């Protein structure tokens, strides 16, 4: 019987992923876990176990007691936070992954999902339609940890037959849970400010183009990849995933169609350098060919759904 453990379930991806997995496989098949003792509000109807991914003994006992088959490991420090605490970022992002890959290697679980990011690319990577395989010289702590993690995933697959699957997420946009500590967070924050007082100060400049995706597409991609037949999976490091690409100016113009007096100011900070090192758009041909990936949300649809649903009280 399938039993899924989502680690880091209280975060931006985790909350929506747990709900999608429950609707697909039933509530009894999914356990949400995160470092906090109390269950996140959005998951109050879900089975919840507090768990620190660095506590390997507790992780192992939860996996054994609950007869877990699949783990989605989402606990990580994102790009902006990782630059401020490089050692802890490395520890959390790498040790957590090792703990889970070892469980799979020892046959305690069957399948692992681990998120990578466009941060694996760096300033020397081709910026437009960045291919699956290309120059990868990341310049951020987060990117270095994601790139190393990808190679570990490929190594555990190659040497130990571990079924680990991964996606290089672009910036993710959602309204249920606020993102925390990422460079692409401006593309979420902007909606809360647009609804609150029709004004936003962006920490990246007007011309910063980055690959982005609406959360519904991202969680659907995650489950589609995990449920694809094993023989279809040809990339064992991590799949490129494209969605849409836009600048803060593009976003402003689309928001102004709903809120005509919306204003944006620019005050770039250290996150500008991080954004400048990342691709502007992603070629996801491999994901399309191997497991039929196709995104659904374009910019107008994304802006419409976000403005209808964001609650400025969450800010
Ligand atoms: C971040 O900005 O750090 C993340 C990412 C692109 O992985 N959203």
UniProtKB/TrEMBL annotation:
It comes from the Bacteria. It holds the Pfam family Epimerase. GO terms for molecular function: L-threonine 3-dehydrogenase activity. GO terms for biological process: L-threonine catabolic process. Residues 4-242 form the NAD-dependent epimerase/dehydratase domain. Belongs to the NAD(P)-dependent epimerase/dehydratase family. PANTHER family: L-THREONINE 3-DEHYDROGENASE, L-THREONINE 3-DEHYDROGENASE, MITOCHONDRIAL. This is NAD-dependent epimerase/dehydratase family protein. The lineage of its organism: Bacteria, Pseudomonadati, Bacteroidota, Flavobacteriia, Flavobacteriales.
């Amino acid at each position: 019987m399938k039993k899924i453990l989502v680690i880091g379930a209280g975060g931006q991806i985790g909350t929506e992923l747990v709900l999608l997995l429950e609707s697909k496989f039933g509530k009894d098949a999914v356990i949400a876990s995160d470092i906090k003792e109390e269950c996140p509000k959005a998951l109050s109807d879900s089975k919840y176990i507090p768990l620190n991914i660095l506590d390997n003994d507790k992780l192992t006992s939860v996996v054994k007691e609950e007869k877990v088959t699949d783990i989605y490991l989402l606990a990580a420090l994102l790009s902006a936070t990782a630059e401020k605490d490089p050692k802890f970022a490395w520890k959390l992002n790498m040790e957590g992954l090792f703990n889970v890959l070892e469980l799979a290697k020892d046959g305690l679980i069957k399948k692992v999902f681990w998120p990578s990011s466009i941060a694996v690319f760096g300033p020397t990577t081709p910026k437009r339609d960045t291919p699956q395989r290309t120059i990868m010289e990341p310049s951020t702590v987060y990117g270095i940890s994601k790139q190393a993690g990808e190679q570990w995933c490929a190594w555990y697959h190659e040497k130990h037959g571990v079924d680990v699957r991964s996606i290089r997420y672009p910036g993710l946009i959602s309204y249920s849970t606020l993102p925390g500590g990422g460079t692409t967070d401006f593309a979420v924050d902007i909606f809360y400010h647009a609804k609150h007082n029709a004004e936003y100060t962006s920490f990246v400049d007007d011309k910063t183009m980055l690959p982005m995706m609406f959360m519904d597409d991202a969680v659907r991609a995650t489950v589609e990849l995990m449920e694809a037949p094993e023989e279809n999976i040809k990339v064992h490091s991590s799949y490129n995933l494209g969605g849409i690409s836009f600048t803060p100016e593009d976003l402003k113009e689309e928001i102004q169609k709903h809120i005509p007096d919306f204003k944006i100011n620019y005050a770039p900070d250290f996150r500008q350098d991080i954004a400048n090192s990342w691709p502007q758009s992603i070629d996801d041909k491999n994901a399309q060919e191997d497991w039929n990936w196709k995104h659904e949300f374009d910019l107008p649809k994304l802006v419409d759904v976000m403005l209808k649903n964001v609650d400025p009280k969450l800010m």
